[in-house]
Each structure stands twice: as C-alpha cells, then as structure tokens.
Amino acid sequence: TGNTIAVVGEAYPINMPMITASATAAAVTYNEETDTVYTNVFRTCFIDPFQGEKMAEYASEKLGASSAAILTMTGNDYSVGLADAFKAKCEELGIAIVAEEGYAEGDVDFKSQLTNILAAAPDVVFCPNYYQDDGLIVTQAREIGLTATFLGGDGWAGVSEYASAEDLEGSYFCSAYAPGSTDAVKAFEEAYIAAYGEDTLNMFAATGYDAAMVLCAALAKAEETGAEPASDEYKQAIIDGIKSEGPSVSGITSESGYTFDEYNNPIKSAVIMTVTDGVETYKETY
C-alpha cells in the first residue's frame, strides 16, 4: 500500500491509468481528507474495511458469536484498517467487543495481551495481522488455555506453516483466492506452475493475473478509438475501458467479471478459508 500510494501521487496529476493487485488500503483510490476519488486508479484486490466487515458478518451469521476480542499490530495500516472495520460492524450487529489489545512490530511474546483476552472470555478473536505473527499468537493462545475461534484477513494465507494443525483447527480467514476451488482456478494454477513454478503461486499471483487481464481488455478498447498512444485522449480511453470492459473479464478471483464502485474498488464476493487438519481449505464464498 505504501509504495502504491507513492505512485498514485505521481500518476493522478497526469491521469496515468493504474491498477493494483495488492494495495488494500482505502486511501489508494480515495483521499478522505480532500474528498478526492483518484479516478485513474483501480484495484482487483479487496480493501481493508471490506474484509473486516465480512469477518464480523461471518462471526455473527455463521458462527453465532455474541462477543469478540481484537488483537492488532499497532501502527500497521493493514492491521488497524481491518480491525476498525470489524469493530464498527460488530457494534452494528450487536457483537460485544470485550477486549482490544495491540502489539509492536517485531514482538514475539504475546502472552500478556492473550491473558487479558482470556479473562474477557470472547467467542471469537479477530487477529488481522500477517501469517508469521498470527501463527505465534494462536500457538501462545492455546498454551494459556484460550480456546476461542480465531478469525483473520487475507494476511493469514500461509499461516499453516507457522502453527500446529491442532492449534489452528477451526480458524477462519477472509481471502480473495481459494486454491483448487473451481475448474477455472485449477486451470490457472496448472498453467502458472508450468510457467513459473509453485513457490510464488498465491493470492497475489491470481489478483495480479486478473489486473493484467482487465488492463489488456482496456488497452484493446483504447486502440479502437484511434487515439495517439500516450496522449491524454489515449490514457482516458484506457481508464474508460477499464470500467466498460472489466465486467466482461472472467477473472480467477472474480469469475463474474470486474465491476467497480464509485471509488474504483471491485464489487465481488469474499472467499472464506478455514484450517482443517493443518490445511488451509476453501470453506465457502460469502
């Protein structure tokens, strides 16, 4: 997100078409302070608030949770963005937030925060951080007897390498990509592995592919206008093409195409993943 926002600062003044597959902060396409939509910037990934809201809804509707705790990395835009949205949606849905704890980047001992959470006895713990930290947190939580269901965002992808199958069992996290979930996804994975190997096959490979396909469709549409490449007219034609052609692009993380809202964020469903027998497994589209 930080790198992308820096590029937005250069691209917006010259109306350079731009699409990101991985920058999730709302500020990438919208400046809340100035009420400015960056009309040239699009994304194929979710925004942070969307994931937080989805996991609160899932906790309420699917897991029957009535109370929740939150554990975040203080000062991290991704972690705080998800947590704020989760908290706001919980309050709307009647889920009581019984504990809020934070930690600093680089911390490896979370026992103090988890002990406070244990005392609050939540039904679920929302832990919207990255997989290395989340694995340590879940492991230490189980060590002190915290049995609540853990929830997370797409930063959890890969968490199964950082905690035991037993400790992670029954955890849920939001993602944009479910490996092997459809024939289209399987075909993409087979082609990707053949070209690049398996090590880099992940959610961002899929959203990156989708971003490229949307942009290619827009470029083809821009070519039809006859505008001079790199001209102002050509750049605007690409931007218009992203909006007009996106819905017809059947993506790996959005088979129904890419339609964008008023902030140029994609309108698509979330994938809910769960950890079963140590394997990150597609649960459902929600």
How would you explain this protein's 3D organization?
The chain has about 290 residues and is α/β, with parallel strands linked by helices. The protein has nine helices and eleven strands. The protein has a seven-stranded mixed β-sheet with strand order 6-5-7-8-9-10-11, with helices on both faces. Strands 1-4 form a two-stranded parallel ribbon. Strands 2-3 form a two-stranded antiparallel ribbon. Strand 7, helix 5 (about 130-145) and strand 8 form a beta-alpha-beta unit. Helix 2 (about 50-60) packs parallel to helix 3 (about 75-95) and helix 8 packs across helix 9. The longest helix is centred in the C-terminal third of the chain and has 21 residues, at about 205-225. The chain is globular.
Largest sheet, spatial ordering of strands:
6-5-7-8-9-10-11
Radius of gyration: 20 Å
CA distance, first residue to last residue = 25 Å
**What is the average per-residue confidence, as pLDDT, rounded to a whole number?**
95
Low-confidence stretches: none
What is the strand content? 15-25%
Derived structural class: alpha/beta
Which shape, going by the Cα principal axes?
globular
Largest beta-sheet details:
7 strands, mixed
Secondary-structure element string: HEEEEHEHEHEHEHEHHHEE
Number of strands: 11
Helix content: 40-55%
Our count of helices gives 9
Record keyword descriptors for this entry.
286 residues, alpha/beta, seven-stranded mixed sheet, two-stranded parallel sheet
